[in-house]
Structure prediction request, 832 residues.
Amino acid sequence: MIAEALQQLTDMAMLATIYSLEIKNGALVIPKGPDAQTMTSNMRRKNGYQSHDHYETEYNQQQSHDHYETEYNQQQSHDHYETEYTQQQSHDHYETEYNQQQSHDHYETEYTQQQSHDHYETEYTQQQSHDHYETEYTQQQSHDHYETEYTQQQSHDHYETEYTQQQSHDHYETEYTQQQSHDHYETEYTQQQSHDHYETEYTQQQSHDHYETEYTQQQSHDHYETEYTQQQSHDHYETEYTQQQSHDHYETEYTQQQSHDHYETEYNQQQSHGHYETEYTQQQSHGHYETEYTQQQSHDHYETEYTQQQSHGHYETEYTQQQSHDHYETEYTQQQSHDHYETEYTQQQSHDHYETEYTQQQSHGHYETEYTQQQSHGHYETEYTQQQSHGHYETEYTQQQSHGHYETEYTQQQSHDHYETEYTQQQSHDHYETEYTQQQSHDHYETEYTQQQSHDHYETEYTQQQSHDHYETEYTQQQSHDHYETEYTQQQSHDHYETEYTQQQSHDHYETEYTQQQSHGHYETEYNQQQSHGHYETEYTQQQSHGHYETEYTQQQSHDHYETEYTQQQSHGHYETEYTQQQSHDHYETEYTQQQSHDHYETEYTQQQSHDHYETEYTQQQSHDHYETEYTQQQSHGHYETEYTQQQSHDHYETEYTQQQSHGHYETEYTQQQSHDHYETEYTQQQSHDHYETEYTQQQSHDHYETEYTQQQSHDHYETEYTQQQSHDHYETEYTQQQSHDHYETEYTQQQSHDHYETEYTQQQSHDHYETEYTQQQSHDHYETEYTQQQSHDHYETEYTQQQSHDHYETEYTQQHAITGWSLSNQVHDTG
Prediction:
């Protein structure tokens, strides 16, 4: 009804506006006589514009076989009036859009209507000021769906309504929202319904000082659920309630809170096929009271948990009980203040196991007892702990027993001024062990004793400490079928005395270690001796202070090897000697090192000799102002080598000499350096069956003179390279000549300054080819000549280039000759 009335009003207003008609008593007034002519004229006008203060009309009409469309736009000022109208019509679709705006203080209307074979839709919007009024209305309808949306807003101080309704073949939904101010009132309502599901949500809020209600209900084929929430202020009241129910499950949750000073209740109950569970929580303040209770029950299991707390002054109780087919367990905890009392009790029992734990604490002044007992088919265990204060007394006792094994641990502590005893004893089929520890203060006395014994092994450890000013003894003895070992350690203060002694002995091995230290001023002796089948070894170390004296001596001897190492150091002013000698069936080696200060003298000497090799190395250093000699000589069946190095300062003199000689090869290297102002000579010569090579380098300063010379010669090749440099103002010559069976080549380069002169010459000649290149440059003001000539069995070529300045003259000449003909080019530039 609302839509039809709006449609009639809209069409009437549109026609009256387009054709300048009047509306009286809800109907259009059609003119007669001369006014009818004016109407016809208005219907034919398509465009219009008029000022002053702007009047505008636009009209557009289209028509074709299957489509009819009309657009109309009207604007008017002063203070703005606007109308837009659009109408489309075709075979299966009808659409109308209408927009109206009006000022001053804004009025607006929008209207849209669409209609086709299977769909009908209407949108309507209305706005109005001053202080805002708004209406939105949407309606859609088709073959299987109907939907209505309605929105309304209103001010001053805000009123709002939203309404949505949808309906189709299998679904019905309604949403409703309402808001209201001042101080806020709100209602939300949602309802859905379909073939197998029904759901309702309801929300209500209210102020001032807040009231809120939420309600949700769902229902389907196999499930029913209800949620309810309620809040209330001032000083807070809250209730939550949830209930679910289905084919095999039932659950209830309930929560309640209340203030001022807090009261809270939580309740949860679940039940399904084979399982039942209840949880209950209660809290209460001021001064705090709390209760928690949980109970579960199923086919083969029963469990109860109970917790209780109470303040001020604190009282707490926890109780847990579980029971199933083969297991029974009880836990109990109790706490109490003021000044703390606590009891814990745990008991477990099953088919083959029984266990009891008991704990008791008590204050002020602290008293504590722990007791644990376990028992099963082949095992029995007892643990007992007792503590007591003030002044501290403690006892720990552990006993285990099983098939073939017996163990006892005992600990006792006592104060004031500390007494402690630890005792451990183990015994089994083939093993017996005893550990004993004793400590005592004031001023510390300690004893540790360990004894192990088995079928083939016996071991004793003994430790003793004593103060004041420290006395310590450690003794270890092991013995087995084929091994005997003794360790002995002794320390003593004041001012430190220490002795360590170790002895091992077995079927084929004997070893002795002995260490002795002594202070003040430090004296130390270390001695190690090993002996076995075919091997004998001795190590000896001696240190002595103040002023430092040190001796190290090592000797090894076996079936085919003899080795001696000797080290000696001495201070103040430093003297050091190192000596090493090795000897075996086919090898003899000697190393000798000597250092001496003040101002440093050093000698190193190494000699090796074997069946086919002889080697000597010798190093000598000496200061003040540095003298150094290095000498190396090697000789073997087909090889002889000598290296010699000599350095000397002040102002540096150096000589290096290397000579190698072997079957078919001879090589000599010689280097000499000398300052002040640098002189250097390098000389290398190699000679073998088919090759001879000489390299010679000479440098000289002040103002630089350098000569390099290289000559190689072999069966089919001869080569000479020569380089010469000279300053002051640079002179350089390079010369290279190669000659072999079928090839001859010469390169020559010459440079000269001051003002640059350069000559390059290259000539190659072989069986079928002859080539000459010539380059000449000259300054001051540049003269250059390049000449190239090639000639072979089938080809002749000449290139000639000439340049000259000042002010540039250039000639290029190229001539080629082959069997096929001539080629001649000539180019001349003369800028004059």
User: Anything to note?
Assistant: The longest strand covers residues 67-76.
